[in-house]
Design a protein that fits this description.
One of its GO terms (molecular function) is zinc ion binding. The protein is α+β, with helices and mostly antiparallel strands. The chain contains 19 helices and 23 strands. The longest helix is centred in the first third of the chain and has 29 residues. The structure holds one DNA strand.
Length: 665
DNA sequence: GCAAGGTC
């Protein structure tokens, strides 16, 4: 029998139908196996990695195992998907040849190799080869199976090296900071090649915000009139008040139009969705991990294409027109017609061959889906149709005005043709009006204003912008970025959106920068990529790479002052509980626990000031401060329902006030 | 109970 192994069930089914024509499906151990009619060939799908690299059980006890022993420990591959492994073994016994047909990339090669190790245990002599395809289309698949090659063991080795390096660094440093700070059990503090640089970006942005000193500047605006009134802005940003005032004084009753331009500007369509772009747009109404799991669901139920892709160019093989036409019989009829009127796809910069950009594959109606599913589905449909629709056209007017030597500028834009904007309703079409003017025309100056402004600190990252930044620095993959971000939340490193780091995050990043800075930098990923390329080329050995990591970490462990490290982090943890200053003694107030939780003074027992807290729901200290007393605004996240925020001091005062009114009335 | 990477 000929056994074909793919990366997942879905591709197994599709490949079987392309290769065999008619397929008979059997369940073995609850796993789908797709047989040819004669029963001589079978395709089975894995579930990505079905084995997991880990330390042997003896290393499980964090407090008893010396960290140094993690450096050169023998690692084990533990089967994660028991049933798939058993099915594979059963099929392997009957097989005389095996074709590995997992995804054609580094991880795919390792996933295939893992399956092969299981197969060879029960059938060591089986003939093995590899089919490489970059799209599941009949021609591509037939071609790949006609021109089969060898399994690329070096490539699998490279991926395995990544696993070892990630595990070793992650385990050693995670345990180091957790142990030294006493954060054990479910409260442990983690470190990793991808999560730590991501966290560092967030922490560093927060530092910029905290250290930001606003500088004042002045702007001048004026209202001009010919037949209509309009506002224009002085071209200069004044850094000195006197200069602004001088310029302001010079502006008289009249001004002259110096330049006037009227033109049409074409605004291109948005590019096809890859995972990052999709998550960014969904981010306007949903967190990325939720958007991803819904997309996953829509994909599994056949509504949209595979949601994990880097590709922003539709492949030729995709019949765009056929897909659009389906939507003529849906509530997107109007949008489909707009797309059909043009049918020229936009394209992004990145083109890969593995999966097409995310697009709808079937028409759904509102009733088929939950509310959130529909929102994601609608986003994918509208985006898809927009990428094929006509460009938008704006009529733009620009004017430059001379007011006694002071130069003002204004612009206006009016939409001429909506084009894709009518389809993709997630961007607002905002028009600004500017009257038609002529060069040399004299305008009345109706009014003028001097504005005092202040420079603002940079904004915090949002879930979408940090995922974009991770992509830019090559941190994580399209499949893992949203999960790693979620990890930062569950570890208590960050809160809210825009993302605010906690004090623990500051402490952990500071500690890591001191002890093992490489793990907080994207360079580590870049270096690992280089090493993996050389392993694939056969120019570098896995052992060398692993040993290099081991030696580095060994050095870290030798020179680290665990007590000092623990102190720094514990102080950070403590700072996270501080909510403000005690109105009675001026010492710090912090969240404390006795019978229940409450806010108490660090001057206790001398100062007995306390504030009550709600006892239910998760409690967070936000980055916002109350205007009245400077106390931190707190957030309660109930297990059900919406979260709410409050100032603990204001609420207490209000509550007391109400009590007084009730008793007096 | 550690990471990151596949997939669900």
């Amino acid at each position: 029998m000929w056994l074909i192994v793919t990366e997942k069930d879905n591709t197994a089914r599709r490949i079987a139908s392309i290769l065999f024509g008619s397929v008979s499906t059997k369940k073995i151990n609850g796993i789908n196996v797709y047989y040819s009619k004669d029963g001589d060939s079978a395709v089975v799908g894995l579930k990505g990695h079905i084995v997991e690299l880990d330390y042997p059980k003896e290393y499980n006890n964090w407090s008893k195992v010396p960290l140094k022993s993690l450096l050169r420990a023998r690692l084990v591959k533990r089967v994660k998907e028991r049933r798939i492994a058993q099915t594979l073994e059963k099929l392997a016994k009957e097989a005389d040849r095996v074709t590995i047909a997992t995804d054609y990339d580094r991880e795919g090669e390792l996933i295939g190799f893992e399956a092969l190790e299981i197969i060879r245990r029960v059938n060591p002599k089986v003939r093995v080869d590899r089919a490489k395809y970059s799209a599941i289309t009949p021609s591509e698949i037939r071609n790949a199976f006609k021109n089969r090659t060898e399994v690329n063991y070096n490539l699998a080795k490279a991926a395995e090296t990544r696993q070892i390096v990630d595990l070793m660094w992650g385990a050693v440093l995670t345990r180091l900071i957790s142990l030294s700070s006493g954060r054990m059990g479910k409260d442990f503090l983690s470190v990793g090649r991808v999560q730590s640089p991501t966290l560092r970006f967030i922490v560093e942005r927060e530092k910029e915000i905290r250290e930001f000193v606003p500088t004042p500047y002045w702007e001048i605006t004026a209202v001009f009139k010919n037949s209509e009134k309009f506002e224009a802005k002085h071209v200069k940003r004044f850094l000195k008040k006197e200069e602004a005032e001088k310029a302001f004084a010079r502006i008289g009753r009249e001004a002259t139009v110096r330049k006037f331009v009227e033109k049409e500007v074409v605004e291109g369509r948005p590019i096809p969705f890859n995972t990052t772009e999709f998550l960014r747009e969904a981010g306007k109404f949903m967190p990325p991990d939720r958007a991803m799991s819904i997309a996953e669901n829509l994909y599994m139920n056949g509504y949209i294409s595979y949601p994990r892709t880097d590709n922003t160019v539709y492949p030729k093989s995709l019949n765009l027109k056929a897909i659009v036409k389906q939507f003529l019989n849906s509530e997107f009829r109007k949008e489909a017609e707009i797309a059909l009127s043009h049918m020229k796809p936009s394209r992004g910069k990145r083109e890969t061959k593995d999966h097409p950009p995310i697009h709808p594959v079937a028409v759904a109606s509102r009733n088929d889906l939950s509310k959130d599913e529909w929102r994601i589905y609608e986003l994918v449909v509208r985006r898809f149709l927009a990428t094929l629709s006509p460009e938008a056209i704006w009529a733009v007017r620009q004017v430059e005005i001379d007011a006694n030597g002071e130069v003002f500028k204004a612009s206006g834009r009016q939409i001429v043709r909506m084009g894709w904007r009518e389809v993709y309703t997630y961007v607002k079409t905002e028009e600004t009006h500017l009257p038609k003017l002529e060069v040399g025309q004299v305008l009345q100056v109706l009014s003028k204003k001097l504005h005092e402004k202040k420079t603002k600190p940079p904004g915090r990252y949002t879930m979408s912008s940090i995922i974009k930044l991770m992509e830019k620095h090559n941190l994580g993959t399209k499949s893992t970025r949203h999960e790693i971000l979620k990890k930062l939340y569950t570890r208590g490193y960050v809160r809210g959106n825009p993302i605010t780091p906690t004090e623990i995050a500051f402490a952990v990043i500071d500690a890591l920068k001191k002890e093992a800075e490489v793990i907080t930098l994207p360079d580590m990923t870049a270096k690992l990529e280089q090493d993996m390329d050389r392993i694939e080329e056969g120019r570098l050995d896995q052992k060398e790479v692993v040993e290099e990591s081991a030696r580095f970490l060994e050095n870290v462990l030798e020179k680290v002052d665990a007590e000092e490290l623990g102190k720094v982090i514990r102080e950070g943890i403590k700072r996270d509980r501080v909510v403000g200053m005690c109105p009675e003694c001026g010492k710090e107030l912090e969240i404390r626990k006795a019978k229940g939780r409450f806010i108490g003074c660090t001057g206790y027992p001398e100062c007995r000031f306390t504030l009550p807290l709600p006892q239910k729901g998760r409690l967070e200290v936000t980055a916002k401060k109350c205007d009245k007393h400077g106390m931190s605004i707190l957030r309660i996240r109930p297990s059900k329902g919406k979260s709410w925020t409050f100032c603990p001091y204001c609420s207490y005062l209000e509550w007391k006030e109400r009590g007084r009114q009730d008793s007096s009335g």
